Every structure is written in C-alpha cells, then in structure tokens.
Amino acid sequence: MGRKRDRDPAHPPALRLRTPDVTAKRATGPSRWVTAALRGLVAAAVALGVAELAAGALGRVSSSPLLAVGAGFIDLTPVWLKDFAIRHFGSNDKTVLLFGLGAGVAVAALVIGLVSRRHLVMGLAGPAAFGAVGVLAALTRPVAEPVDAVPSAVGALAGMAALALLVRGARPSAVAPRPSPAAVRTAQSTATSDGGATEASEPVNGALRRSEDAGAGIDRRRALLTSAGAVGVAAASGVAGRLLLHRGDVSSVRADLRLPRPASPARPVPSGAQVPVPQMTPFRTPDKDFYRVDTALTLPQVDPRDWTLRIHGMAARPVELTFDALLREALIERDITLSCVSNQVGGDLAGNARWLGAPLAPLLRRAGIRSGADQILSRSSDGMTLSTPLEAILDGRDAMIAVGMNGAPLPIVHGFPARLVVPGLYGYVSATKWVVDLKVTRFATDRAYWTRRGYADHAPIKTFSRVDVPKPLAALKAGRVAVAGTAWAQHRGIDAVEWQVDDGPWRPARLAPVPGLDTWRQWIAEWDAAPGSHTLRCRATDGTGRTQPEHRTPPFPDGATGWHSVVVTVT
C-alpha cells in the first residue's frame, strides 16, 4: 500500500485522456436567466427600430407599430377609462399610454428571451405574434393603405432574426476544439518518460483544458459581438427612422405662412375683461396653455400647399377648396371660448382664443344643401370624424373654418393648417382639427367617432362656473379676501354669477365686461374672511335666465354640470 508500481519501459502505461466538459464554461445561476431575458429585450429593440425605419422610409408615421397599436387601443377604450385618463393625466394621457405600451412590450420581450433559452421556436413565435398585432392595427386605421402593414411585418422578421442569432451565438460549441496532434504527442512523451497513467494524463488534459478555454473564449466573444451588433442595429435604425419621419414636419412652412387681414375684425377686448387678481385665469389663453384633448398619438403634418377641403354628400354642387382659395374668402376674426365635454365640474379643459377663419355657412350654401340634411360629418386628415348639427352652423353664429389663432397661423397641435370652430357646442361635435372633409348628411345615416360610443348627437355647452381664486385648500389670513372665477355659456352669454360662503346666503358677484356672447366671463367678489374652515361655492345664470343646477352630473354623455366649490382655511 502506498508502493509505486514498477514501470516497464517496453510497455508504457495506457494514456487516459479526460473528456472535455463542454458545459463547464456556461454561465450558472441567476446570470443565465438575466442574460436570456436581455436577449429578448435586445431583439425587441431591433424589431421596433427596423419598423421605425420602414415607417420613415415609407413616410407613413401612423404605421409605426407602437403608434398603430396605441391608436387601436384608444379606439377600444371604454368611456369610463377615457374619462379616468383625461381626469388624471390631462394632456399627458397620450404620453402615459405610449409609456405603458412600451413597458408592456419590454416585459413581454423579457419573457420571450427566457422562453427562447430552451425553446427557440416558441420564442420566435413572440415577435411573430406582435408583428401580426401591429399589421392588424395598422390596416384597421380609418385612412389605412396596404403599405401600412410593411413596418410591422418587417420589424417582426428583424426581431425574429435578431433573437435567433443572439440565442445561437450564446450557445457553446457542441464539440470543444481539440489540441493539435503534436501537442498530444509531446505531452504523451513527457508523461511516458516521467510516470504512469495517472501522471501521464495530466499534461495531455492540461492541453485539452487550454484548448477548451480558448474555444469558450471565442464563444463568449461571439455572443458579445452579436449582442453589440444587434444593439447598434436597433439604435441606428430607430434614429434613422425618426429622421426620415421628420422630413414631413411642417413647422417651417407654418413659420413662413402669412395670413391675410380679416374682412370682419374682432371687437376690441374691453378694458377690465381681465380681473386684476393674482393667480387668476387669463382672459385670453396662450397657445401653449390651451387645452388639448384628441386621439392623435402623433401630430398630423399637413402641408397647406397640399391641403384641400371637400364639401360633398347631400350637396347639389360639391365644393373643393385649396388653402389659397380658403384664404381668399371673406375671413372673420372672433374671440371664442372652446370647452371639452370631458371637463369635470371645476375643471380646466376650456380655453379662450381669438380665431381667424372663413365663415362656414356661406361655404355650405354654395355647395347647395339638399332637403333632409341635418348633420355635417367632418373628417380630419388622420381619419377622426365628428358630427355637428347643421342647424347650429346655419343659425347665424360665427361657425368657421379657422386658419389662425391668437394672431398667428394655427399651431400644429391645434389643427394647422385648418380646423372647425363652432361656438356654443362641445368640442367633440364642433372642433375638428386638421379638417379635410365635410359631408352633408343625416344623423340617421352616418355616425361619428364619439356618437358611436354613446355620446349625444347634439351637445350645446352647459352653463358652467368655477372658483379660480382662492385655490382649493388655500391657507388665508383673516380679513378682506378676493374671491374670483370664470363662467361661460357660449352663444347664450352669462348674465349673473352668485357666490356663497358655507351655507350662507347667495351674494351677487361683479361681472367683468366681455367682447361678445361666445367668450367666458370673469367675476369677482370681496369677502371678509373669518378664522376657520370654509367652503366657497358659485353658480351662474345664462342669457336665457337659466341658473346652474346644484346636482352634479358626470361628463358622459353630454357634459358635466353642478356647483363648483373649494375649501379654504382662514387663520
């Protein structure tokens, strides 16, 4: 025991070679799963980047998969969820939606990466399914063309190819590289001269280990290079796609546009229309602060040189106007307050601006309205449809195809180059942005986007008032305090505003002057505030003598109403 076996020079011991373990260099533990998940994420980035590049090359912004799916999601959104999004996110609702979609895609991509680690074919089904959803969403848009399917399809193929390359590049070689015959002979000769089988195997196996390590290093480098290449493709294609899409940006065209002077200028805004109270809402809303509620995930870029307005349907003489022809009409300029039907009691989804445009009624009469028509179905360049009661356009109010806002061409976000403005109606039946088509029709024949979802066909703006100052939960000092706010009832006007402290008597507020019936009206009162917690309320009476009801109703289906109140603390 412990005695070394005698060596026979004539019969050297058999050389035992260790079989290389090709799995020895694979990642172990949680890192395997993290790496696999990240491969799915990189493949998804490649898919989206290539799809963006394809959309840019085609000049079809709306065919970008995220935008197409997002637009489809908006179409399927129930009313309660839409109101929730507008109430909590306001004009940022679209940003939140796109962020949510992006996060969902990222999570799905991580799962796909994990699945593909063991089942590549199942993993490849993920990008294919997402591509199919993108194609379906793109082809079901109102203004879709067959070519809109291309970005999602190409992106899916790119994502599948990237995933396959990443997965295969991360797998070690099935057979480890063998050492050269010369290396084996040298190791064997050395072992034979020095010792037995046990000792002999070590130099040879060392050579094998070095060769195996070199092979594993090559595999790791290959996986790293493949991943880096995929990330580069994703980034480059995404950036290139964005640059191509910006080719259609009309900001410079808008900046160079000069609008003609109105044939009928707006009345001057009376001195005192703006109540001199700090933090009070401005009488005229700046463009950047004007509310935005629409379904466009990306702003339509409509070049006025290519723009036309078509008036047709139940019309004896269909009309088609270019932008230059529209500017040659006798333009009118008016101060008009717009309001969204989604505005809650006390909400800020309303704005007042000075609009410049062509009167709509003469254009419709020029087209020859046929008997029985009761609706104008307007369509925007991105396919959105709104329905406007024909009687509201022909009753003498200043309905117009607006081209200017606050002394400049319409901002792109508010409908450049042209939009519909009809005072006295909520925006969803009167304020089509990027308008390109007016169809004279009947409510019984054609249904618009919002009316198909249960909103009312006729939606005159309800009398509305709110307390703007002091702000809710404000901490005030005892003594004389200004209480001020805004009220509106477009096309009827505001005749009176009353305010109340706690359950005390209603008191009349002083009304600021206004240039006409179609703008909101500011009001102010003075309050001798006593210490304690107090509730301030207001209510308005319109030009027909009707006062706001106390009971609050939700925005759906034809606008919210009720008394607005704020709670303040006086010390």
Automatic annotation (TrEMBL):
<dbReference type="Pfam" id="PF00174">
    <property type="entry name" value="Oxidored_molyb"/>
</dbReference>
<feature type="transmembrane region" description="Helical">
    <location>
        <begin position="149"/>
        <end position="167"/>
    </location>
</feature>
<feature type="compositionally biased region" description="Low complexity">
    <location>
        <begin position="174"/>
        <end position="185"/>
    </location>
</feature>
<dbReference type="GO" id="GO:0006790">
    <property type="term" value="P:sulfur compound metabolic process"/>
</dbReference>
<protein>
    <submittedName>
        <fullName>Molybdopterin-dependent oxidoreductase</fullName>
    </submittedName>
</protein>
<dbReference type="GO" id="GO:0043546">
    <property type="term" value="F:molybdopterin cofactor binding"/>
</dbReference>
<feature type="domain" description="Oxidoreductase molybdopterin-binding">
    <location>
        <begin position="298"/>
        <end position="446"/>
    </location>
</feature>
<dbReference type="GO" id="GO:0008482">
    <property type="term" value="F:sulfite oxidase activity"/>
</dbReference>
<dbReference type="InterPro" id="IPR014756">
    <property type="entry name" value="Ig_E-set"/>
</dbReference>
<feature type="region of interest" description="Disordered">
    <location>
        <begin position="541"/>
        <end position="563"/>
    </location>
</feature>
<dbReference type="GO" id="GO:0020037">
    <property type="term" value="F:heme binding"/>
</dbReference>
<keyword id="KW-0472">Membrane</keyword>
<keyword id="KW-0812">Transmembrane</keyword>
<feature type="transmembrane region" description="Helical">
    <location>
        <begin position="36"/>
        <end position="58"/>
    </location>
</feature>
<dbReference type="InterPro" id="IPR036374">
    <property type="entry name" value="OxRdtase_Mopterin-bd_sf"/>
</dbReference>
<feature type="transmembrane region" description="Helical">
    <location>
        <begin position="122"/>
        <end position="143"/>
    </location>
</feature>
<keyword id="KW-1133">Transmembrane helix</keyword>
<feature type="transmembrane region" description="Helical">
    <location>
        <begin position="223"/>
        <end position="245"/>
    </location>
</feature>
<feature type="region of interest" description="Disordered">
    <location>
        <begin position="174"/>
        <end position="213"/>
    </location>
</feature>
<feature type="region of interest" description="Disordered">
    <location>
        <begin position="261"/>
        <end position="283"/>
    </location>
</feature>
<dbReference type="InterPro" id="IPR000572">
    <property type="entry name" value="OxRdtase_Mopterin-bd_dom"/>
</dbReference>
<feature type="compositionally biased region" description="Polar residues">
    <location>
        <begin position="186"/>
        <end position="195"/>
    </location>
</feature>
<feature type="transmembrane region" description="Helical">
    <location>
        <begin position="96"/>
        <end position="115"/>
    </location>
</feature>
